[in-house]
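Quick question, first post here. What does this chain look like in 3D?
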Amino acid sequence: MHKKLSLHDLPRFDDKLTYIYAEHAVIEQQDSAIAVHRADGTSTAIPAAALAVLLLGPGTTLTHAAIKSLADNNCQVLWVGEHGVRFYAHGLGGARSSRNLLRQAFLATQDVARLQVVVRMYCMRFDDKPDPTVTLQQLRGKEGVRVREAYAVAAREAGVEWRGRSYNRGHWDAADPINRALSAANACLYGLCHAAILSGGYCPALGFIHTGKQLSFVYDVADLYKVKYTFPIAFRESTGGTEGLESRVRRACRDLFRTQKLVQQILPDIAAAMDVTADGDFVGDPGDDTYAGDEARPADWWQPDTLPPETPIGRILEQAIRRPWKS
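> Answer (accepted):
Ran it through. Tokens below.
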């Protein structure tokens, strides 16, 4: 019987390995690790506490003991499609406190506050600080130019022809090698960003730039890193042909994410985008999480700041509130 560790006992998210992708395999618990048994008869033991993300592709079987070990060690488990390019489901995040989530929800539902986050997230993509007199529409135009130039540079350095981003999710194999490589690389990046978001106690659905999908915030965060990480890898690996292309891309992403220490950047970048480091209200470490040592501890009662405790409930229900989801 293994003792369940508290968040205080576990490695920080930014100290972990990036991710492992498995398909057509059986995954079982092995002491304090998990063992991945592949169809070809090979097996690999992976320390659960050192892994940030486990991507489960088609044909994988996961035992109850293995998923319990992964959950106890705050490893995010994502169920994905073939080659890791579609997302189906995920497990719970590792944070116990809801403080970051409440801050994110406030910022995402207040127009001016949300606009400020949007502007900061766009500005973070540029090496030079943008001119503060430009409009948001102009800033988006500059971002479009930056991305197009990045595609052109990556294509030129790899020595391949670039015809533009184009692919059909229903006919994956019909896409050219570059677009297949880009989708595979972006899927790896999405998985890592998704895990960081959950580990930090944020909601993947509450985006700022993107909206309307359950992964909107994942796309927001991943767009901070695509030009630097996934573009060069995808173009370089596409020159090796289609045989094993997605596997080569995943390995290259994993190696680059690790050597560049991407996992150490994501949560601080989220905090900077939300401007939460200035007031000390950022929960990014188990030491800041009131519930990290005891997940069964009851939650505190919420107390409003706008109405005094002696306010009659009838008056509370009469208060006019803004409902942005209603016309």
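The beta strands are 17-22, 25-30, 33-38, 43-47, 51-56, 60-62, 76-80, 87-90.
DSSP finds ten helices and eight strands in the chain.
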